[in-house]
Amino acid sequence: MSTEVEEPPSEATDTDEVASETAAVAAPDVLADSLGEYAKLWLARVRSGDSGFLPVLLGLVAIVIYFQARSSLFLSAGNLVNLMTQAAWIVLLGMAEVWVLLLGEIDLSIGYTSAIGATFTCWLLVPPHPWPWPIAVLVGLAVPAIFGGLEGLIITRLRLPSFVVTLAGQLLAIGLLLEVMDFAAPGSGGTIRLYNNVLSDIEGGAMSPLAGWIVMAVSVALAGTTFIVRDRRRRASNLAAPPASVTALKIVMMAIAGVVVVLIGNTNRGVAVAVRGVPWVVPLILVIVVAYSFLLGRTRSGRYFYAIGGNAEAARRAGINLSRIRVAAFALAGLTAGIMGIVYASYLGSVSTNVPGGQNVLLAVAAAVIGGVSLFGGRGKMLGAVLGGVVVAVIYNGLELLGLGAAPQYMWTAAVLLAAVIVDATARRGRSTA
Amino acid sequence: MTNPSADDARPATAGRASARDSDQAMQAPQTQPVHAPAAVDPVSAQDANGSDGADGSQLLLRLVGVGKNFGPVRALTDIDLDIPVGQVTAIVGDNGAGKSTLIKTISGIWHQDHGEMFWQDRPVHLHTPKDATDLGIATVYQDLALCDNLDIVANMFLGQEPVRHFQLDEISMEKTAKQTLADLSVVTVRSVRQPVGSLSGGQRQAVAVAKAVMRQAKLVILDEPTAALGVTQTRVVLDLIRRLKSQNIAVIVISHNLIDVMSVADRVAVLRLGRLVAVGPKSQFDAESIVDLMTMGTTRRLVGQPAEPSRPAGQSSGSSSEH
């Protein structure tokens, strides 16, 4: 035998060059010393493919400008409030989908399980002997949550693809919806009205103008304080913190967004009588986004969602219980779908077996992906579903306003979704070759 | 790498294994039947010194007669190996020699069928990876098991995040992570908050090792740590191994690269066909003798002082020619 030593075959794949570029993809928050440097690092990051919310925001602005140019009614207070209530249910279903998308899974059943939940809620509230509405709501949330949890159990125990299991779940849910409706309201034509005023007011009612301002001010103050306290604690521990100017800019932008929403809501949109105020669904979604973002960003379980989505094998070796997180994801998706079902019933004033659940769930996936949630798992934020849901709602609202039918609505959504997936896949490739 | 039959290659199965693995096909002599060791049997070198390492340092882990079967296939046979504190032990061997089986046995993925393991002179039985982790054995596999989408801090603490007021205690995590990396002189990462996916190969390896060190590992096992790295990054990793050693951590390195082995190891253990054919201080070996041992099981070239003659050669040769 010769003295030649076998070289490892992969010697050629040198990764040295990457080191010099690392700054480009690191979070600018912890690297920058000043606002200018922050902007520079942020631009570098966008160029490297990790663009965050930038594409969806730019897309939103472009679409809004287009519709406003075509119809001056688009940016009227009345239409914008209308838009908020339309967007609400898409946003909620999108957030439901984020839970499973983060793990690289998908749930196709929630469009119909949400309707089952809402059917239970509406059924329990039917006069003459309505149950207390909080109990009706709890039942309406629990049913889809349990349905989702069971799907999750099947997926994890039997190691089946979530696509197929939740597709079966969707078909089952359609059948169950018909059964439940038939039992709850026989001979009603498959519709139950929502009789409760509290729940009707989610989409139909509005905060008083003063309450709107107070809620907005308190929210911005709380968020701002959280940012500042966090930065201060990091600096006190000698850790890098975002420059004060960047934090200030963030708070100012939040405040501006809040003021705009409240101003729109508080403008009189009535014709005969004055109608003012931000719809209740806006603070409801705000609370849910904050709660979910906290769960995902600040807790151990939340971190495990990202870890499993990023590298399930690494998560498993780290001792994380994968099955538990996966089942929880499907249950949380179901729970959020339950919220959406009630909001949807509030929007329509009733719940019906004619709900386009299959289409809604695809819109929800589209909303999440448009908002930067990766279909491949491990990347995305709850806020992304909000922005993506707004984009989808703007398209539907705008095309309706222009008097165009369903055909262009579908085609526009298709184009935007395709663009979002391309951005997602390109960003992913950009990172893996970086 | 979890395929048992690719991991062992007893003589009878050598043909099948080489068909499976083109690298092995290049090692023609391997398919020859095992013959008795000729001049020197370096296995005896370690036994002469009793329960202490070759230079008298404290023993951390001791394997006595460890064997592992997969069905009728003997992946490991009669392994006697000492792992001393603060030293780097390189385990070398051709594909299918049993290196992976050996480290998986040490790291609790598989329990040995024969023999015993002693951790700091106490007998231990490692049935799960957690048993090994609890003792302080950390294994860094070739694929590193890092989440590219999470930052360095999140990866280092994955599964063991401290919680304060129902929230992740990011500040204490980040401080500890920074300190650990600084202790290992990993200075090239600009921020511990950058995603691991943006790091170079050597930096990723450093993060994986730092993760092990941070969890108070006493024994760090590195599986082919330099296999995918270029020259500069390899140097980074070898420096890292030396620093582990200087922190009095025992290190086991699995490597194909004999240049790396000779530059960083204190002790060398050569595996062939599931059997330890030579163990000893690095000074007893050179690249050529290691290749001889890896491929033929014997060598006529031992450098330095030859191994102390102790155990009769027949004991080893007799067992190696069974089957």
How much of the polypeptide of chain B forms β-strand, as a percent range? 15-25%
- Biggest interface between protein chains, with counts per chain? A-B, 54 and 61 residues
The largest pleated sheet of chain B is described as: 6 strands, mixed
CATH class descriptor of the domain at 52-205 and 279-311 and 318-373 and 381-429 in chain A: Mainly Alpha
Shape of chain B: globular
The topology string of helices and strands of chain A comes to: HHHHHHHEHHHHHHHEHHH
* SSE run of chain B: HHHEEEHEEHEHEEHHEHEHEEHH
The CATH topology of the domain at 52-205 and 279-311 and 318-373 and 381-429 in chain A is ABC transporter involved in vitamin B12 uptake, BtuC
Q: Which structural category do the helix and sheet elements of chain A fall into?
A: mainly alpha
The CATH architecture term of the domain at 52-205 and 279-311 and 318-373 and 381-429 in chain A is Orthogonal Bundle
Distance between the termini of chain B: 25 Å
Silhouette of chain A: globular
- The CATH topology name of chain B reads Rossmann fold
Number of strands of chain B: 12
Instruction: Please give the oligomerization state of what you see.
Output: heterodimer
